[in-house]
Design goal:
Chain B: It is a multi-pass membrane protein. Chain B: One of its GO terms (cellular component) is plasma membrane. The structure holds two protein chains of two kinds. By secondary structure, chain A is of the alpha/beta class. Helices cover about 60% and strands about 10% of the residues of chain A. In chain A, the strands form two sheets. Chain A has a six-stranded mixed sheet, with helices on both faces. Chain B has 18 helices and ten strands. Classes of the chains: A alpha/beta, B alpha/beta. Chains A and B meet through α2, α3, α4, α5 and α6 of A and α3, α4, α5, α7 and α8 of B.
Chain lengths: ~550, ~575
């Protein structure tokens, strides 16, 4: 992760210097003031003090100014590095397309927050230790010059308080952290059950028991946290002890040196007050150490993503011819890590035909969509669109001819226009309005759609996604579970409109329920990675196959009866 | 992450509601005050001891000095140095004790707030809430209070005590320095407030922009598959760079102003110490002050500003916790849904709705309008209609989750509102559209409403609900834990577990049960849908039942005497069997 910061090394170095200057001004102020006072006590001429007086006042201002500049410089450098990190992460994702990861929204948001953790590392974890090292070295050098043993004592105190205590405290905190995390997981589960399951619990009179379970989990978590408080207070105590004992040791050594005649009264005052002020240097380090573990975990996850190989092999950029063409899939096999997900699939979508792929969950339907979109590499077989072999063309070449609505299509936090123009950047407003009409979507082009399209209903999002796909004018349109999250009332209307809009275009509808199947020209039932039966909807319903049995579901008959 | 700009302005350093709600907070405040007082005393003592040692030692009295008259002075010096060690030990012990005590109080206070929150939101009828957000608030949100309790509050106590104590001591030693400190210390909170108010307005203006720019990367990464599909993924990389750069510039613009308050604080505090040092130096030079006093003033002067600086630095860290506490209070203040209900016995018989209208708070349209409906005892009624026709509201009424805004419901001439909701629900077997399964065993999930049901009854309910093949496929059968939200099972299997729940309740109810089903086969694949359909047929046979669905074809699955009702938003349009 530090490697990411290297191009911004100059800015970080400046930040470290400014931070060191600020801390040094704070400590130096007290050392200088000690010299000033101890010297004044010997009643010298006023001129002997004039330089120190000016310096003291200067240090008083330096510290605030240097601190302010340091914060600006390091934040700027960290934000620049963050921009680099985002750049790299995005470029890598765009090159490898680990689309399966994207099934879980949680993984994606964690990836983004892991990227953002680089900024935290740089601002809080990198510059404070380096600045502390610089100033600490200087202060120890000064003290050693005054009194060797005093300087060594201060060095020992600073190293213990600045390195050993933070690291040990961070390590001691790991055990409690784990215990609390386990107790909190239990509490979360109990809470999820009590809050999300509230209707079920109230209806079945079981809410009291659920609350009692939350209470027990909460009591357990509280007990654990209270017990571990003893361990977590140790860091604060140890730092205070080291500061106090170092001061005590400086007094002891200093006074002994004075009485032995090895140290003058003025250096004694400087030595002791420097030791008193020096622990300000290490104050920010415990927070930096506590963060290290979390930042390291972020880094590992981040580079785990960056190191994944591309999902598909490099292939020819030769364009797939545009215009109507037949899709022919022969003996297609595919797998992820385990057994075959597709095992010898044969399927045809003649130009202009509407074909459905149905079957139970886990039959390999979505893998088929991923292969057609070139998100996923096939293991064997052939996928031909007209004369072009899609398995040996680059993703971008294939996607010029094959488009559609993937599972959970993303709607960007922008306007309707921007979301549509994604598919065809040169499209005019009239073209955009025309495609909206085709999918029966009555939206203003300037309308903002909200984060993940939150201002639109589920049905509207699907219509928008289809409008986007139609704009690319593909030879083959693939609809992967386009009604999966819609409520039953809107599902049929959306599907009807989608199929109307796709009229005359080769369309492959992938669905796990049977909505819309009766409107298709040909239906393939896929089970365990291969075609179990196929034919027209009427043929399949008449035969004694899966579709016929499944077709007895009220849902499909309702639509079939139209 | 809590957005600081939104949470700053209404925030008080010490929320009185927090004190009222959590008794642990009051204890904590007492402990923190006591620790603060002790620590203040130790700071003063240490300064006095150190200045004394340095002054005496330079006056000629060393440790090893054995010259007659000096020996008592040297003994005193040794004693004073030993006292410094004692103070060091005491300060360390106090620092440890205060932190540990603060974390312990934090744990207790969080627990008190959490349980108040949980009791509040689980009391009354279930409402449409963002459960995920509440769970986050009750766990990670409240955990942010650790910083508030352990780091911020004790520092706040010190920020009040230490400057005052230091000022009193300095005033006794050297009044000119006391004036410098007395003038500058109050300036710090004043300036910080002024700068804070100014930056607040600016930050608030900037916040929307920062938020949008900051969210862009997440939006683009989440949408990467979509971008890839439209061959825009690589083109978007330039935009990522551009927006991130804009974000940096906007952030830096905000930070330049936001860091000003810390700047003012640092400059004032350090400059004041420098002024005190110079002033004391000159008075010493002219013999108006002795070295010991001068050193005492010099050592104490920075201590007056240190707690103020710390409290400023920690305010931001504790803000998230305060924001979480405020969110808890907002939820606690919302008392909708907690309504007085009847206490009578549960009536049985025909259920009649008389001109029932339901309008949810904050809506401009009735969810149900003037509905008259009879649900005959012992017979099934199929309720169909498009989305928004009020089908779910009807089930809510029968579950007593919703009360009529006007009109009334009677059961065999008794008013349903007079019955105790819990007793009424004891004879209701409900299968929701998306049933919630609990992180418990399969048997425990089926027993939800009947925790004392014998194993045989659970088995029978499972068989009736077409669950036998599911049970056979689980490693420990009925004793298998289903995981969070029943993650181990598919949607169709979860639906059948909910049906088993309903069978168990219906079979064991003391009075004839009311069966309520909400879109029983929505989202199911055909195999599961067929199984659910068979089980539903069994469940409604001979019982008072309401099946809500958008799909009129369900009529063929039901007994011949079933009624058919079609709801059109927002009122009953047609009734009777076609």
């Amino acid at each position: 992760m530090l490697g990411l910061a290297r191009p911004r090394g100059g800015r970080f170095a400046l930040g470290v210097l400014l931070g060191a200057a600020a801390t040094a001004a704070g400590v130096g102020l007290l050392s200088l003031a000690a010299w000033l006072i101890a010297t004044a006590a010997t009643h010298p001429a006023v001129t002997a003090l004039s330089v120190a007086v000016v310096l003291t006042r200067a240090l008083g201002v330096t510290r605030g100014v240097a601190r302010y500049l340091e914060r600006l410089v390091t934040h700027d450098a960290a934000l620049r590095t963050l921009a680099d990190a985002r750049d790299r992460v995005y470029a890598r994702l765009a090159a490898t397309e680990p689309v399966r990861r994207f099934r879980s929204g949680d993984l994606v948001s964690r990836l983004v927050s892991d990227t953002d953790a680089t900024q935290d590392l740089l601002v809080r974890g990198l510059t404070p230790p380096l600045a502390a090292l610089l100033v600490g070295g200087g202060v120890v050098a000064l003290s050693t010059a005054l009194l060797t043993e005093g300087g060594l004592l201060l060095a020992a105190g600073l190293v213990l308080a600045g390195v050993a205590v933070p690291l040990l405290a961070a390590r001691a905190g790991r055990g409690p952290g784990r215990r609390v995390a386990a107790a909190r997981a239990e509490l979360s589960t109990a809470l999820v059950d009590a809050l999300q399951g509230a209707p079920d619990l109230v209806a079945y009179g079981a809410m009291d028991r659920a609350v009692a379970r939350v209470e027990a989990a909460d009591a357990d978590l509280t007990r654990t946290a209270r017990r571990d408080a003893r361990l977590l207070g140790l860091g604060a105590g140890a730092t205070a002890l080291l500061a106090g004992l170092t001061l005590w040791g400086s007094l002891l050594l200093g006074v002994a040196a004075v009485s032995a005649g090895r140290l003058g009264p003025i250096p004694l005052a400087v030595l002791v007050l420097t030791a008193l002020a020096a622990f300000e240097i290490v104050a920010p380090l415990p927070a930096a150490a506590a963060r290290l573990g979390a930042v390291r975990a972020s880094g590992e996850r981040l580079f785990g993503v960056l190191d994944t190989p591309p999902q598909v092999r490099p292939a020819s950029d030769e364009p797939v011819p545009a215009g109507p063409a037949d899709l022919r899939i022969r003996d297609l096999t595919a797998r992820y890590d385990g057994p075959l997900v597709l095992d010898g699939l044969d399927l045809d979508v003649p130009a202009g035909a509407h074909v459905a792929v149905v079957g139970p969950s886990g039959a390999g339907k979505s893998t088929l969509a991923a292969i057609l979109f070139r998100f996923q590499e096939a293991e064997g077989g052939a996928v031909r669109l007209g004369d072009a072999d899609l398995l040996h063309r680059s993703p971008d070449a294939v996607r010029a001819a094959v488009s559609g609505v993937p599972q959970d299509p993303h709607v960007f936090d922008s306007t309707v226009r921007e979301n549509l123009r994604l598919a065809r950047p040169a499209a005019t407003d009239d073209e955009l309005r025309a495609v909206l009409t085709r999918v029966r979507l009555d939206l203003d082009l300037d309308e903002p759609v909200g984060i993940r399209g939150s201002r639109l209903s589920g049905g509207m999002r699907q219509r928008l996604a289809l409008a986007r796909a139609l704009l690319t004018d593909p030879a083959l349109l693939v609809l992967d579970e386009p009604t999966a999250h819609l409520d039953p009332g809107t599902r049929d209307a959306v599907l009807d409109d989608l199929l109307d809009a796709a009229a005359g275009r080769a369309t492959l509808l992938i669905t796990h329920d049977l909505a819309g199947v009766e409107r298709m020209e040909h239906v393939y039932v896929v089970r365990e990675g291969t075609v179990a039966e196929h034919g027209t909807p009427a043929e399949l319903l008449a035969a004694d196959g899966w579709l016929a049995r499944a077709g007895r579901a009220p849902l499909s008959r309702a639509t079939a009866g139209r | 992450m809590v957005d600081p700009a939104k949470s700053v302005s209404p925030m008080k350093p010490l929320d009185p509601r927090l004190l009222r709600t959590a008794s642990a907070v009051r204890t904590h405040l007492l402990v923190a005050t006591a620790c603060g007082a002790a620590l203040t005393g130790l700071i003063l003592l240490q300064a006095w001891l150190v200045s004394r040692v340095v002054a005496r030692a330079t006056g000629g009295a060393g440790l090893e000095s054995t010259v007659g008259s000096a020996s008592s002075a040297s003994a005193e010096l040794a004693l004073v140095i030993a006292a410094v060690a004692a103070v060091a030990l005491a300060r360390a012990g106090l620092a440890y004790g205060a932190e540990a005590a603060a974390l312990r109080s934090a744990a207790s206070a969080k627990s008190q707030l959490r349980m108040r929150l949980v009791r509040h939101v689980t009391g009354g009828v279930p409402r449409d809430r963002d459960a995920g957000e509440l769970v986050t608030l009750a766990t990670r949100g409240l955990d942010a209070l650790d910083d508030y309790f352990a780091r911020y509050l004790p520092q706040l106590v010190l920020a009040v005590m230490v400057p005052v104590a230091v000022l009193v001591v300095i005033a006794g030693a050297d009044w000119v320095s006391a004036v410098v400190v007395a003038v500058t210390v109050p300036l710090i909170p004043l300036f910080m407030a002024l700068v804070g108010m100014h930056t607040q307005a600016r930050t608030n203006r900037q916040w929307a922009l920062l938020n949008r720019l900051g969210g862009h990367f997440l939006d683009v990464v989440e949408g990467l598959p979509t971008l890839a599909l439209f061959r825009r993924a690589k083109a978007e990389a330039a935009l990522v760079r551009k927006v991130t750069d804009q974000h940096r510039e906007a952030t830096m613009g905000t930070l330049k102003v936001a860091f000003l308050s810390a700047f003012v604080l640092e400059v004032l505090a350090t400059l004041a110490v420098a002024l005190v040092a110079v002033e004391v130096g000159f008075r010493l030079l002219y013999g108006r002050l002795d070295l010991e006093t001068a050193l005492l003033v010099l050592i104490l002067a920075p201590e007056a500003y240190l707690p103020l600086r710390e409290v400023g630095a920690r305010f931001h860290a504790s803000m998230e916790g305060i924001a979480a506490a405020q969110q808890v209070f907002t939820v606690l203040d919302d008392r909708a849904g907690i309504v007085p209900a009847g206490t009578g016995a549960a009536p049985t018989g025909d259920i009649r709705l008389h001109g029932v209208t339901v309008r949810y708070p904050g809506r401009d349209r009735d969810a149900l309008h003037d509905l008259d409906l009879t649900l005959p005892a012992g017979r099934a009624t199929l309720v169909t209609g498009p989305s928004g026709a009020g089908k779910s509201t009807l089930l809510g009424l029968l579950l007593r989750f919703v009360e009529p805004t006007s009109g009334r419901i009677t059961v065999n001439a008794d008013d349903l509102a007079d019955a105790d909701p819990d007793r009424w629900r004891r004879a209701v077997a409900w299968v929701p559209q998306d049933p919630h399964l609990f992180d418990d065993t399969l048997a425990g999930n089926i027993r939800l409403g009947e925790p004392d049901a014998p194993v045989a009854a659970v088995r029978r309910a499972a068989t009736l609900a077409e669950l036998d093949d599911v049970v056979a496929g689980l490693p420990a059968g009925f004793a298998t834990r289903l995981g969070e939200r029943g993650a181990r099972l598919s949607a169709g299997q979860r639906q059948r577990v909910a049906l088993a729940r309903a069978f168990l309740r219906a079979e064991r109810a003391e009075t004839p049960p009311l069966v309520l089903l909400d879109e029983p086969t929505a989202h199911l694949d055909p195999d599961n849908a067929a199984a659910v359909r068979r089980a539903v047929g069994r469940l409604v046979e001979g019982r008072t039942a309401v099946i809500v669905t958008h799909d009129p074809a369900w009529a063929d699955e039901l007994p011949a005497d079933a009624g058919l009702v079609r709801l059109e938003a927002p009122a009953l349009v047609s009734g009777g069997r076609e």
